Amino acid sequence: MSLSDFLSQASSKWLRDEGPESDIVISSRVRIARNLTGYVFPLIASESDKQAVLQTVEKAVEQPQVKQLGHFEILKMNDLSPVEQAVLVEKHLVSPALIESSGSAVILRDDEELGVMVNEEDHLRMQCLLPGYQLDAAYALADRLDDALETSLDYAFDETKGYLTACPTNVGTGMRASVMVHLPALVLTGSIQRILSAVTHVGLAVRGIYGEGTDALGNLFQISNQITLGQSEQEILSNLHGVVKQIIDHERTARQHLLQQSKDPIEDRVCRSFGILAYARQIDSKEAMQRLSDVRLGIDLGIIKGVSANILKELMVATQPGFLQKYYGHEMNPGERDVKRASLIRERLRMDQVQS
Amino acid sequence: MLCEQCGQRPATVHYTEIVQGKKNEYHLCEVCASQKGQAAYQALAGPFSVNQLLSGLLHFDSSVAPRSDAPAPRCEHCGLTFQQFVKMGQFGCEHCYETFSEQLGPLLKRVQSADHHTGKIPKRRGGAMTLRRELSQLRKELQLSVLEERFEEAAQLRDRIRSLEQQIGSDA
Fold it and tell me: What stretch or stretches form a coiled coil here (chain B) (predicted)?
């Protein structure tokens, strides 16, 4: 199978499509945690408890209200190979914790934008994942799925505490809204620390997508709400909006500043990274992410033309271990993966007509 | 000197580790050191999670920690004890919120902005709750309109409150 066929078949809609503000905002996600009343939470549940929950949820998905939202398919984690599980995690469709949990499953809509994890930390974790900056649309869709499931499910809910979740950090709305942002210019100009620490003071959390703490691989950061109790869903979203809009503005300003003040070094950096991606014969995931981030910045600044802007998003997922092993059809050790990763990146770059 | 782990590459990383008073010296090559370093770090730190952070908070919070003379509360629905909750950072079932409400209060204030849910209410099961919330909202508006001497508006609000009260009364 050719790489372009593989990518179009294996990737989710959020990876293929561009969205609003996609020069900075990679994706928007809303996750809603719910539990069924009358069942203990998954952490201490027996296998038969978990099966009962799963069956109840499966039945709820068959309801006409849910079917109106599209065609859903259930994937039980037990039935999947380790590579298939890894691919789901790499596509951000399930959490690593779902794979660890026994008797767990994910129910995915065909376009993979909407789904429900079953028997993770909570009985249900609905998720809507959209490309670009579409927080409100993501919440609207997740909210519709929540309403549709609630027509046949009895949720654990308390008038003062709200939706009851396994962990008290999710109680109340049970909602976690987040955006993934690409902030290379703020990292290069050194203003990222100041901005990130300001963000954590207003009830939001920031973390690197890959890698630990603020040492974010590929200059990708996830900004999400920390608080779930005492604010309504709309308040949480508008809080997040306010901060994300400012971060977008700061990043755009920093990019212009870079282009005006350090044109030569930035062009050099971008083109070197492009050269390495286009010719390297082995590359580890850390370097790949950094080079891809540079190239994406180069595309956004108009330094590199003819390469699709989606390349960062597409390759940050397609160069992960699970995806590589799926594409090449066999298991690989890390050294082999570095070779295949370089080869996949070269192949992907050849799909576009490059001028720089 | 060669790396004492693989014996192939020259040892370039030399470090001393003191664990519980016991001192160990290592002489490793960069490859083995980075492997060992990561393993050591992960063993020390463990996989980091919100739950651990939470149980950390609980351990250090004397207002939350149960007094030793008091009997440890245990959820009668799922059997979870407060110690287990502190350890896992997760509840066992929906009733734990009631069982451990006393201990939970200070914690919620710390990790959340308030202790009262103001967001979405389940549509099918939450009918009466929605009405009650609307009622308390209207009462607040009434107070405000009286304070600001907007009496015409206050009269309208009073009528709406009465009809809501009747509706809730007849439901119950």
Answer: 128-167
